[in-house]
Amino acid sequence: MITTIEKQTGTAFRLKKGQWLKVTDPKGEQVSDMVLFNALDKAEKLSSGKTLDFEETLLITKGHHLWSNRSNKMMRIVEDTNGRNDFLLAPCSPETFQIMYQNSDYHPSCFENLHTNLAPFEILPDDIPTAFNIFMNVQFAASGKLSVEPPMSKAGDYVLFEAMMDLIVGLTACSAEMSNNYSFKPVQYEILERSPAS
User: Fold this and answer.
1) Do 23 and 182 form a contact (C-beta atoms < 8 A)?
2) 197 Cβ partners below 8 Å, 6+ apart?
3) H or E element that contains 95
4) Is 75:36 a contact under the CB 8 Å cutoff?
5) Which residues on neighbouring strands pair with residue 25, listed in sequence order?
6) Distance between alpha carbon 142 and the CA centroid of its chain, in Å?
7) Vertex 53, ends 75 and 130: CA angle to 5°?
8) Gap between the Cα atoms of 151 and 148, Å rounded
9) pLDDT value at position 1?
10) What are the pLDDT digits (tens) for 141-150?
11) What digits encode the pLDDT tens for the residues 59-75?
């Protein structure tokens, strides 16, 4: 069953070891922030640092794994029709809009959408790690300067993951203007018992 995450919102759910998670950008140019926790021990969670270290690349895509803070594989990326994702930048938060956008008014954020949806699993805001930013296009100059560019994803692009352990997953339709080419759209996901190709 395909589930839609409406624009600027999020969700959280359980994913069993061996199940497949398909995250789709139905309209194009929409980022989805994803965080992972070991369902049997929530102190084990997704680690950007471990993943970039062990995979030896900044560009995490098909064939790579997402690793935990305890150096265990949490997910395998089975397919990635877009090929550009980010694992450097933190989920947008109220402070993001205050500091980077000079916006002191309330603004939906991935951080809020993650921690409010993960709260029923007894996961606290301070537990939220750096997210795997699906479809996010972060470019880096030779000087090290980072820039957030419009996503390269087209309507229907998807990333297919295999769970390597029992997981609690937090997933959003990103709320940051710059990340989504200034147009907020939904994200869709589907839990499959095995690969569609198998």
Assistant:
1) no
2) none
3) helix 94-99
4) yes
5) 157
6) 26
7) 60
8) 9
9) 93
10) 999 999 999 9
11) 999 999 999 999 999 99
Phi, psi of 157 (to 5 degrees): -60, 150
Please say if the pLDDT value at position 136 is more than 50. yes
Q: What is the 3-state composition of the chain as percent helix, strand, coil, each rounded to the nearest 5?
A: 15, 35, 50
Mean pLDDT score, 17-30: 98
Compute the half-sphere exposure of residue 182: CA atoms within 13 Å on the CB side of its CA: 1
Distance from the Cα of residue 93 to its chain's centroid:
14
pLDDT of residue 177: 87
- Tell which residue, 129, 81, 91, 126, has the closest CA to residue 111: 91
State the amino acid at position 48 in one-letter form: S
Residue 181: exposed, middle, or buried by beta-carbon count in 10 A (0-12, 13-18, 19+)?
A: middle
Rg of the chain taking only CA atoms, in angstroms: 15
List of E strands, 97-174:
132-134, 137-140, 146-149, 157-163, 167-172
- List Cα–Cα distances, 15 to 33, 123, 167, 182, in angstroms: 16, 16, 5, 31
Q: Tokens in use for 12?
A: 């959280």
Q: What is the pLDDT of residues 158-175, one digit of tens each?
A: 999 999 999 999 999 999
Rounded Cα gap, residues 165 and 16, in angstroms: 7
**Segment 66-92 mean pLDDT:** 97
